[in-house]
Every structure is written in structure tokens, then in C-alpha cells.
Amino acid sequence: MKEFLKRKNIEFSAKRYGIDALGAMAQGLFCSLLIGTIIKTLGQQLGVQLLIDVGTYASGMAGPAMAVAIGYALKCDPLVLFSLAAVGNAANVEGGAGGPLAVLVIAIIAAECGKAVSKETKIDILVTPGVTIIVGVLLAKLIAPPIGGIADAFGSFIRRATELQPFWMGIAVSVLVGIALTLPISSAAICHTLGLVGLAGGAAVAGCCAHMVGFAVMSFKENRWGGLVSQGLGTSMLQMPNLVRHPVCWLPPVLASAITGPIATCVFQLEMNGAAINSGMGTCGLCGPIGVWTGWMAPSEKALAEGAVAIAPTALDWIGLVLVCIVLPALLSWLFCNIFRKLGWIKEGDLTLPQ
């Protein structure tokens, strides 16, 4: 069995399923639902029907895009990879509000089953896609609804808890999602799976921005402009090798997120009512702030289901967005980092990005 699994490149591990597959799923979401939502919102604001149509088509491919991305991360053979489009669509539709989690689980199982039979018969062109699609769609019918229901219930709990306890939940959501963004897992996929919109989404945006902007600013001394851009508009995950060696370097952005989270929920009532994936993107391509803006202009279906309505943002809304996403993370992380440098907790070169 070990020889067979090795030959088929089937590896049962937390890294492959919890990091590689989950991270790839977020990329699939980005290339379908997220970019589609942005394009559609631009079309609605500019009155360009073509952009609305493009965004609608892109958003509608979220299920297939996620599944194919997962298959790519699992190193599937072509026939398995292409067959996962049907599996992803079925799992996403049957999973309802919690569709992304259903896609993750079912696409992994279908992909591994497809890999197991791939190139084992003379009629591979029939067997491989047949097994992959039949296994995936049957699982979608059987387990996608309960998986989706569990994910939606947990997301609803977080959203309601944040509304009832905006201060404490503002801290918890901001800190935890910000940490997830920096870890080699996908905060974007997590937020989309849990449907984090509204105040909970705003707290998640605050936490992600605190980590990305925070690491970019506090490491400017070591990494200069290249590091500022790569971390501030790319990902704070670049700091992971340094954080493994020097965990104390994580404290400034964590403390910053613990402050900006409740400021977002309690002071500015900052809601992220765009696509839920935006809640876990931070300043990566400015997707977090863009999600807040699109939520103001045209709330996502998930946000509408939660009672959100389109608004005309006031000056206070814009001030809150800029402060929570850019200004406060930069100032607070820089301040905490300088204190820790003077205490000798953070030393010269601890934040230098690997070349």
C-alpha cells in the first residue's frame, strides 16, 4: 500500500490538505468570486453592463475554480484535474452558504480517488473522469449539505457574538484572523468558508491589515521599499522564517490588531459587507479595503442575507477605513517594535526577509 500511495503521489498529511490545498482554494476563490465581485461592482457604479456581465460570469465559477485549484495543489493528473470542475460546482451548490468548506473536503477525496485509478486501465479516458466525477457528486449529495450547515452555523455564531460583544469579539476575531493570515494557511478561505461579513468581517479586515501593514512598516529599517511593498501589498507570510526563529517579532502586529479590532467594531462600526473572502485578505492588493467599499456600494449576497443594505459612505466612514486599515496599524506596530528594540527583545536583522 505504501508503494502504491507513493507511486500515485497520494500523501495523507496536514500540510498537504490543511496548507497546500487550503491555500490553493483561496487562490481559486480570488480568481473567480473575488475578482468577479470587484469587476461587477465597478460595472454597477460606472453603469457598464459588460463589466457587470464579466463579474457575474467570474463569480459564478467559484466552485469549479476552487476544486481545480485544490487538484493542482494535490498534483493531480490532467484527467483528474479537469474532472474536478464538475465536482467543485456540485459541492459548492449542494453546500449552500458553507459551500467552500464542502468543496475543500469533497474535492480532496474525489481528487485522491481519481489519482488512485488514473492510468491503471486501457480505458483511462473513461475510468479516471468517471470515478472522479461520480465519487465527487455522490459525496456532494450526501455530505455537502451538513458540512455547509455546520460551517454556516459556526459563522453565524461568530457574527452574532461580534454584534453582542463587539469589544471582546473585535479583539478575538482581529487577532486570530490576523495570525492566520501570516501563518502558511489561508485566512481568506477561512473567512469565506465562515461567511465573515458585517462587524465580524470588519474586525477580520482590521486584524489582517494590522499584520500586513505592521510587518511592512516595522521591518522597513531592514527591508526598505522592496519589503514595504512585498509585505504591505503582498503578504506578511514572508516573515514566517523570521517568526519561527524569533517569535517575539510577532508581538507588535498582534498587539496592534488587538487595538484596531475593537476600534473597528466599537468606534467606527466598520462593516465588511463585500464578498466574505475580502475579510481575510487585508491589504493584499488592497482587497480588504476594497471589500469594505464594495459592501458600501453593493453588499454581497451573504451580507444581504444578514440584513446589510447599500449606503452612501460618510466622511467618518472613510476616515475609519483609512485609520483602521493603514494609519493605526503602521503607527502602533512601529511604536511597539521600537519599544521592543530598546528592550533588546527585537534585534537588528531579526526582521530581514530571506533572499
Which characteristics define this entry?
mainly alpha, 0% strand, 76% helix, 16 helices, 355 residues
Distance between the termini: 40 Å
Strand content: under 5%
Give helix % range.
Answer: over 70%
Shape annotation: globular
Number of domains: 2
Number of strands: 0
SSE run: HHHHHHHHHHHHHHHH
Number of helical elements: 16
Helix/strand/pairing category: mainly alpha
Q: Radius of gyration over alpha carbons?
A: 21 Å
- Major sheet details: none
Unreliable stretches: none
Average of pLDDT: 91
Description of the molecule:
With about 350 residues, the protein is mostly helical. The chain has two domains: about 1-155, no CATH class; about 165-345, no CATH class. The chain is about 75% helix and about 0% strand. The chain has helices spanning about 1-5, 15-45, 50-60, 60-75, 80-95, 100-115, 125-165, 165-180, 185-195, 200-220, 220-235, 240-245, 250-265, 285-295, 300-305, 315-345. Helix 7 (about 125-165) packs antiparallel against helix 8. It starts with a helix and ends in a 12-residue tail after the last helix. The mean pLDDT is about 90.
